[in-house]
């Protein structure tokens, strides 16, 4: 199978490298020539334009946002030059509305489209330890399932409409942000009451909350180590916006999601966009009159 | 050591039984004669009044609330009849302000006082699988540490002021309620978007959220099994009130805690006080126009 | 001066009629032929297409939303057929981002553009009792000031960038929605405490709150007369979305605006989109377990 | 009629002076000897203890809080020394729960009790321009109606249970705080968008919001003049706490009230307790990254 790949950022590079390991031919394009060179060394063919990468059986894309996809033309213009039978597997975290629009645009051009976003950071992408979701036409998913299963340790089909995978991904990120917010508020309360949050998190992550999400972020919060960012607050803010957009469209009031969103927003205004998104905890502390 | 025990509810009975196993003499009182009889069969001596139970080296108490403790007189009146050198180990989930008041009242009467609340439900209390916290004068904690360590699988000293253990406990319950609220909002969003929350929770609890708090409550939420209650919503509402009271006193704004509190409040108004406190998820669903 | 007019809904019809009274020639277009006929009887010339209305010195438009303007092509396509020197006065309540986009699109085509939204309902539009704001290039505003001043009882220039007038309008609607939310919550609290909200509102609107916003809406709320709608909840929901979109773009956390938005959202999910937007008060009541 | 008066703070002094003008004999006590001397000069008899002031037909009291009333003993101890037939008119802003407790304590001692809180600041108290509410047994209210009507420009009977007047007062303060919060958020949004909030408030208070609450506070907010305080933020915070306590007891979820409360709380943590309560607007600005 000939596979096109568009978008070789921190996530995309790792994923493309793991696709190469499945033995398929990969033609890759990225805005960054360095990233293309790097994947070329691992066996991929470089594509000089997105259109070149498009000439394949299956196109994987991993771009940063709705806007980045529109810029490349994957919302329509580029699709006109796609070969018959192309299946586009979009792994990006995009809005539910845009996923629906993409599905429609591909259908209009007679192309296949599934959404297949992932949970996991760049190191998990490189190590094929992602959690991979997929939604769309079952037969299309089956076509690429063998590849998707190789990209992570967990694979789940979550719906037959592509945008459902995006909703799934958005809801997952909301869960993490909510956990961070809870840890941040608890830490601020405890600190002002003279209790060490480190002891608190030790007790909790040794029992009811013995899960990676709490182990990872409680350490950052107790140690106030918001730099370097594992996941930038500006990206968390973007995702919180996607959650509220989906909630608005589906008519589901989510007060906790609104609190999380507003706190990201206040953190952006404070200039913390480049810090780790767990800086929600820093905000809780500053609000309580603590130094940080 | 002669040990008095006041409060043989679902939690207290299990704890008292485990104290008996440490070999100490236990004199127990409860408002419920049946509970006293039951513990008598396990080897305790029955106390006809709280005052009788008070004639000991150490008094353990496990009552339902600030109000229940005042009713028995443990905030003052009863203390006048306590023997010299008595140490009171209070395991109840009470307010931070009341814990401080209790510490003061005991000091005034020359008595020892430590707070030692626990995490865990009645079955964990019976099986000695609780998480036990303690705060107060270190020497007093050491006096009862051998007993406290036998009541659970985890024991942590969290501060040298008794009320700090209560703050710790309150913060812990806030963490659980926040996790429930997040699961509830995510489930409502997914359901309205046509995605099965069960699949969502399977994926999450198989990875980042692989912790008891999420495993237990996601199952209840996905299955909408809010009855019988493992922990009644009315009690969750009480604890959410303790969180906000502590936050107010310590001057720490907790927007997520306010959302959780308001949602418990709305659930109370809906008459759901006897349902499991994970009915926060039911509220999120009803708000979204789903049946429940 | 030859004036084009696009959009003859409830608001537009009244405004167009008042422009006619200034003695200028008016060429009007609307999606609804009935509306065009009606304004023709008052002296306007009918335009068979938007493009015909565009052939003027000044174009006024009053369409329902960003989407309605895009549909007509005022975001670009239609502008290509505009005469040199045209000044577009946009009176619609649109998003800040779209206003900025429109300003750019007009500049690109060498056309003038100012935003001039209004406060007031259809009856105020017909009676020339609106409050009219304007923002944009001062010289352009001066060109149409004599007309704008005739459309209402109050006229204010609020900035030199068109989108500032839209921000102003959005903030004004947020003020009204906030007042409604406050009245609704107060009424629910009082009712559950056995106090008549009517007495409460009488006292308040006789003193500190003796203003039209409170007089109008407190009467609706105390009487629970949410039908027929003076301003539909679905439109309030749209405007609440514009507020949050502007807040997000400008990085200003607005917790009250989020509460109002979420309550509109919940009301939409309840199927109340056609009720008056003061149904926020109905939601507060239902939440409290009151019948409505 | 012989009238006792307890509590000669900024509000009480003005009210006591106006009661003197009704021709009744007034015996006044205050913790501050200076305040007693001042009212003595206006014709009152000084009381050396609260008990002396209590020997009257009617006792008016105007103390700062639940705690201040307990300190004086008006919740019980002092009542034992009250003359038969005494009617206590309590004008303080106290909690609903405490008002209920007071009504019970007075009934137990065979004394009359009505709540009669007021709207208005010290200057309005001195000028007899208050809004006066009353709730309780109708015959008791009628006994003092002639006096109460002389204390302000508006008098309203709002219920037959004393605590209903307190709920009414609390709801009124919530309305003002909500209006301030709305103005503060709108001002922050506009400022970040480059629009002068002064122009905005001019337009609004010239129309839909032409009411004292908006005229007074918009001027403070637009001018950022939070000192000297007309009403201290610490008091607003106290009242916001009373609102949430009443809401909790009556089971009415009030999300806007929670936002207002949390913002007062954050302002307290910032050390702004002595600023005017309209500093809620300062908080909105600081959150947006504006200087203040």
Question: Explain this structure to me?
Answer:
Chain A is α/β, with parallel strands linked by helices. The first copy, chain A, contains 13 helices and nine strands. Chain A has helices at residues 10-20, 33-41, 50-54, 66-72, 96-108, 122-126, 138-149, 162-192, 197-205, 212-223, 233-250, 255-269, 280-287; strands at residues 2-6, 25-29, 45-46, 58-61, 87-90, 112-115, 118-119, 130-135, 152-159. Chain A has a six-stranded parallel β-sheet with strand order 3-2-1-4-5-6, sandwiched between helices. In chain A, β2, α2 and β3 (45-46) form a beta-alpha-beta unit. The model of chain A has no long low-confidence stretch (mean pLDDT 97). Chains in contact: A-B, A-C, A-D, B-C, B-D, C-D. Chains B and D meet through α11 and α12 of B and α11 and α12 of D.
List keywords for this structure.
292 residues; 53% helix; alpha/beta; 9 strands; 3-stranded mixed β-sheet; homotetramer; elongated; 6-stranded parallel β-sheet
Briefly say what this structure is.
4 copies of one chain form a homotetramer. By secondary structure, chain A is α/β, with parallel strands linked by helices. Chain A has helices at residues 10-20, 33-41, 50-54, 66-72, 96-108, 122-126, 138-149, 162-192, 197-205, 212-223, 233-250, 255-269, 280-287, and strands at 2-6, 25-29, 45-46, 58-61, 87-90, 112-115, 118-119, 130-135, 152-159.
Catalogue the unreliable spans of chain A. Answer: none
Amount of beta strand of chain A:
5-15%
Query: Helical amount among residues of chain A, as a percent range?
Result: 40-55%
Mean pLDDT across residues of chain A: 97
Using the CA coordinates, give the radius of gyration of chain A. Answer: 20 Å
Q: Tell me the total number of β-strands of chain A.
A: 9
Largest sheet of chain A: 6 strands, parallel
Give helix and strand order of chain A, one letter per element, not per position. Answer: EHEHEHEHEHEEHEHEHHHHHH
Q: Figure out the total of helices of chain A.
A: 13
Query: What's the overall geometry of chain A?
Result: elongated
